[in-house]
Design a protein that fits this description.
By secondary structure, the chain is α+β, with helices and mostly antiparallel strands. The protein is 50% helix and 7% strand.
Amino acid sequence: MIVFLTLLVGVVTVSYLYLRHKLNYWQDRGIPCLPPSLLYGNLDSVGQKVHNTINIQLVYENFKIGHKVCGFYLLQTPRLIILDLDLIKNIMIKDFNNFVDRGVYNNAEVDPLSGHLFAIEGDKWRNLRTKLSSTFTSGKMKMMYPIIQSYSQGLVDLVERLSTNDRNGFDIKNVCTRFTADVIGSCGFGLECGALKDENSEMLRMGEFFDIRDPLVRFNFFFVNIFPNFAKRFNMKITPKFIIDFFMPMIRQTYDYRMNNDVNRNDFMSLLIQIIKNGKLNDDEGVSTGSMTFNELAAQAFLFFVAGFETSSTTMTFALYELAYRKEIQDKLRKEVIEIEKRHNGEITYEAIAEMTYLDQIVNETLRIYTPIGQLFRTCINDYTIPDTNIVINSGMSVIIPIHAIHHDSRYFYDPEVFNPDRFSNEELRKRPQCSFLPFGDGPRNCIGMRFGQMQVKLGIATMIKNFEFSFDENTTYPLWMDTRNIVVTAMHPIRLIAKKI
């Protein structure tokens, strides 16, 4: 027993000293940092008390004046938070080749759906980005627009049905999610999901992928991203099994049918199949950039679902929430929608959406306050000296770009917690420095699907505002409590709105 206790004390002591040494990483380098806890580092009980986006914002607020960077500990792993906009510009644009990778876990050999454009690295990313860039041009978005527009009447019918059945309000997030599920199912996979008609649609169930409140899904997600080398060594997957079992056969069936029957449709799946067949799109006059494998196609189709489903429905939800609270803004938007629609033969066409400048300002302000993904990550691939300092970012270090914190910084956005679309007028835009608004990132690795996401969000909002006047249910509060357990910014409780048909 004495020998056992002696060994136990020795192990505990050595472990403690090792952890303390790791948690002195930034202090030893003279980088400012808040005191970390032994187990959680600078995380607040692993995000249980406040969302990790807010954790990073609190650190940012402590050091944003007079510092270009500050330290942060993700558990015991050091990360560097970038505070200076010029340095952010360097990382994302000017010196991008030194910060190409996001450091997101992927293991395409055992988890094909993880090998998508968002996660892959280095030359693999460059090659795939080149192949996919032409699938998200404005011309291709205009081509897909009629598919999205075909679901607008179903959206109106759903809101009208819910308003009739429950005059005390309905869950607006549920409505927006059903709309984006149908749009993504059709544009991404050529499927009629029927989510607007049936809330038990299979595509909606797949949205559970984003609900990492499930302890096992949550643990796996964070573990493989914090310990990627260990996870790869043991062939761990980041994609839950039920997602793989749903998407891989579905994509294979659609792919085989279109290949065997030479089916072409104005959607994302057909564009990917063109790349597999020709190494480029049919209407692309350039040289072939190389073909794709089926697994690569499946991963990109899955990314289309991931990127367009939850973030778009969340943005629509928060925009309608703010419009319901601020009637004068809602009325101003409705006036713009109706006036522009009249100039386009009574339809909300692709060109009409492009003319709705106030709608664009509202969507941008929603993305500023409720940025779906509150921080970006980049991995330094070569030692990098921060300009005008002697600070070196070592190769392999992950840096954090605190988007949410920047979007709520009063130096760039006066009274930042107030929803004010006028911040995005042309006059105000000219006043702000570059990289102060980054909902889609910036530089070569910005969000490739930005145009598509904005298109479906704007059409959804314009359609609903044209047809309904929104107000708060008696149980809906302002401001909102946010769910601390989710990656995407999400309300803790359902947002219930009342819709009055116009």
